[in-house]
Amino acid sequence: MRFEQLNPFTVAVYYLCVLGIIMFSMNPLLIGIALLTSVLGAVIGGTADRKAHIFSLAVFLIAAVLNPLFVHKGMTPLFFLNDNPITLEATVYGLCAAGMLTAALYRLRDLGKVMTSDRVLYLFGRFSPQIALLLSMAIRYTALLRVRWRKICDSQRALGLFDDGNLIDAVRGRARVLSILITWTLENGIVTAESMESRGYGTGKRTSYAVYRVHKIDGFIMLVCILLTALSAVGIYFSKAAFYPALSMNLLHPWGIAGAAAFTVLSLLPLIINGREAIRWRLLLSKT
Amino acid sequence: MALVTVKNLSYTYPDPNGRGGACSSRIVSDAGSGRSDDRHRALSDINLSIERGEFITLMGATGSGKSTLLRLFKPELRQNGELEGTLTYAVKTDEGDRDVALDEEIIHPRVVGYVAQDPEEQIVTDKVWHELAFTLENLGMRQQDIARRVAEIASYFGIDRWMEHDTATLSGGEKQLLNLAAVMIADPELLLLDEPTAQLDPIAATRFIETVYRLNRETGVTVLLCEHRCEELFPLSDRIVILDGGRVVFDDTPRKVAQMIGKDDKYSAFLPTAARLFHLVTRSAQTNDAIPQSPLTHVSGDSLLAGSGSPSVATRRLPNGEHLYQREPEIPLSVREGQRFVGNLQIKEAPSEHTDAPLTEEALLLKNIRFRYERRGADILRDLDLTVYRGEVFALLGANGAGKSTAAAVAAGLRKPYAGTVKLFGKTLKDYKNGTLYKENLSLLPQDAESVFLHETVGEELGGCDEVLKGLPFDLSPLYERHPYDISGGERQLVALAKSLSAKPRFLIMDEPSKGLDANRKALLLEVIRRLKADGVTILLITHDVEFAALCADRCALFAQGRIAAVDRTDRFMTDNRFYTTVASRITRRFVDGAYTVALAAKRFSTDGGAV
């Protein structure tokens, strides 16, 4: 079983845990681990292309530089820039914050790739079949409207009614396209309504069908996630990282090390699951 | 006992401007009949009984009331008109069938299924599997039951391969198949289909009809289908019902209907090509040889059309009391039967061919065009070369998704190719400055008429087109007060056509203009094209309607794999193609050349000399 094939609930819980720790820890050790593992995951999993890596690097650098430039708290000035102290504390804090932001961005990108619209729907549909249907229809209509927008633009342009010559004309043209789009969609919406009605919508209590199942491994992995997260949180508590006025942290506290180890395992969980799958597959192939 | 029984049914719409296709029947055609006194009455005195498991095709011109009748069988979809007479439905009970009035209480997706014309608008959700499950979710079924039904229906319809796809990515044919599957998943007894293939290309349409036929044969579902597509439906249907002006004018087996209609030209457009050819040939035999009746001969004499199916023997009493055995030839309905029929006819000399001088002045030139939508995507147009000469009607034919519409968009300057040149009347499109391209030079009639309308009424929509309107063979003025969305789809297309002509283009591109039109409207459209051509307008026709192209194009091209696979004069194109050609050509091509329309074919065959 690959990580993406787990039940959407499990996947959601996993990302909730990882992102929670990343965003609320502010512990240099954990953030270092988070940054390394999320980049590793993106490279191995192929969820980010070169452009995305460059973008992340830019985010990291900007965030890291901005903090010491604007925040002058801290007891240890490194040097002075325009008579303003650049402090060690602010620099470290900046690095941590930048690491946090970058790691979170990588993780969110993974999440976006894994959590396709039907998985999101499934998550919401567990709570209410109505909301599930509403979301599903919204997604379907977005696709439809996009196609129609293009068709209307083409028709209007080919009839000579759409001038891109100057800004006012262009804006007026778009407004007209929008008006046609709305009329078209609302007027033809009656066909959709009839299709729903003739297929029994509104005749009784709805159920919600889903293609995802819950397996034992889902429960197991959720449990592992929660335990590792709890351990990481304990580690964060005992490490007592503080940046201002002076850096003070006890990163090598036994619980802190245990927490960091737990978080490493948590961060690498998708890679571990997929790696196990890959090895099994290899073995299976070599046997046949 | 009949599944559904309709007795003395009449249906009246409350106001003439009400919604629905049927009430907008006061059409625009020249042949507008004087139905002014009962114009709100959509249906009158309908008597119909539908047996379990029957496959019935309902035909009629737009506005004949067929959609209205169909919707009456599905009470959820009835509009607030006034219904007289009775409509009963046989419910199975322990003591056998019991007739109940067809009203909302018993109607349920499990009893009556309904598929409408527009493939796009009927889809509710974003994923294919969810669309199937939607119907069952509404019925409150349990998870595992839904899973089973969805799996069953998906494999029956062959849609299991795209179960996980987004509905938005499907083709029109796939969408309509999905709509049918989503209705059939509730296992209805009666399946209603309102012009389900009008928006599809011929291949997808045939596939759809075959699926409906298969459902009918294999599951016994009763089918009531409204369609214009007679070629496929005459051979398949158990019964043909033809409506005109809200009344049933024919209700019999396809062969009987085909036989009867021959005497009545008004309805001949509903007949398949083979049957029309039969009538044309046998009728010309009557006029030439002054035979008083249709092809009837003594049994002792030579059978006129021996071998054209098993002849039915009828008796007729002559005035002198003698019985005359008549052998009535069976009327052909399909291509195969048509071939058998013409195989026994005399072949006449081909009329002398008058060839027009070939056109030489280029109107549109596409050279080495390459186009793709996305940088990483595949090429949609691959090294496309196309020349359209000034003054001709050029038809670009091909399957849906082959890139015809994209080629049109490139020709119209709406999409920029990444390689190649586009020239219109000798100038590149870029050289038309300040929007002059779309003023008096080029116009494109889009596939979706809805994308054209801006105003509240048709009158406003057509403001400033007076001169154009005068040149059209139909009158749109009765529609001026109506909203563009309150008129029927066919009327909307005509309004869009008038609008696309308002800039008086020298070059007109029409994208699927015949889609969803009935025979009368198609005739109007043909007339428009003829007049435009006479005025010197060059026309590029993008279509998958081979029959339509055969009637109006000077040259045809077959578009495939992003380029043109064959281009030729229409007669040679239709004669040389074996599969992608007209029905008339498929019937006659083993016997004569160049008979690619019914009219041409009728000139090449005669019954002279009787049996061969």
Structural description of this entry:
- The complex is a heterodimer of chains A (288) and B (612).
- Chain A is mainly alpha-helical.
- In chain A, strands 1-2 form a two-stranded antiparallel sheet.
- Chain A starts with 7 loop residues before the first helix and ends with a helix.
- Chain A folds into two domains: 3-120 and 213-287, no CATH class; 131-198, no CATH class.
- Chain A has helices at residues 8-25, 28-45, 50-70, 88-114, 117-125, 129-158, 167-198, 216-239, 254-287, and strands at 77-81, 84-87.
- Chain B has 612 residues and is of the alpha/beta class.
- Chain B has a domain at 362-590: P-loop containing nucleotide triphosphate hydrolases (Rossmann fold).
- Helix content of chain B is 29%, strand content 24%.
- In chain B, the strands form six sheets. Chain B has a six-stranded mixed beta sheet with strand order 6-7-8-3-9-10, sandwiched between helices.
- In chain B, a hairpin with a 2-residue loop joins strand 4 and strand 5.
- The model of chain B is unreliable at 17-38, 289-317 and 322-326 (pLDDT under 50).
- The chains are: A mainly alpha (288), B alpha/beta (612).
- Chains A and B meet through helix 5, helix 6 and helix 7 of A and strand 6, helix 2, helix 3, helix 4 and strand 19 of B.
